[in-house]
Amino acid sequence: MTDALDFSANIQRFTGFASDYDRYRPAPPAVLADLLCALAKTSRPRLVVDLGSGTGLSTRYWAGRADQVIGIEPTVDMRREAEARTRAANISYREGFSHSTGLPDVCAQIVTCSQALHWMEPQSTFEEVRRILEPGGVFAAFDYDWPPTTSSWQADAAYEACERRIRQVEDMLPDPLALLRWHKHEHLARMRQSGCFRYTREIVLHHTEMGNAERLVGLLLSQGNVMTLYKKGFSEADLGIDEFRRQAQQALGDTPTTWYFSSRLRIAIV
Predict the structure, then answer these.
(1) pLDDT-flagged residues of the chain (< 70)
(2) What is the pTM of this model?
(3) How far apart are CA 172 and CA 183, in angstroms?
């Protein structure tokens, strides 16, 4: 079934803004590695595989925590950015899909997927995860509640209003790029129904990072739908981003303050 799916529109959506993506997006919470290693019953996994690794934010995270880390990413632009930003010798990136990693059977103790599972065909992805994980290995797919909670509710409200306007513009376009995606709120149910895992559950992790007006605008510009609309010729004024930029600056200014990120983590054990 997966062979008949065309992911080219998905790849195109994430091409052309890798640098901003890496600069403004959050890193995984520090406690994530402790939790996954405890579940996998290892203090230091021999291999962690990161599916949909993008610019390597969620891959580089494991540099000092695992013997080897492999990021699997189909988008050339993102993969090049990841390679340019990675210094650790135990991290590498490979072209591939979540349903076809090219990795050997039973090779990994942990497989992760950060902010990307909704772009992946679920059943074939879960089957590939089961194939490459050792018995007792852990699959962890996580998404951030979006946007993060900043130090200003006015800034948060402005972000959400701009997002709504962007979605309205996107929804008016004929055939929105034939994108393939699956609803995030159904991730856990699909994991349970897949027949690939002995145990599944969802938990929420929290962590903080620093941000200001520039970063909040940068987070918006790191979204694929915004960049897609830019490529189609829409301006900041068309999308309300110019007004959002003004409101963010007024509410947050240039001085970084503490932001709160919540990660919805779906865990599965093979």
Answers:
(1) 1-3, 175-177
(2) 0.94
(3) 20
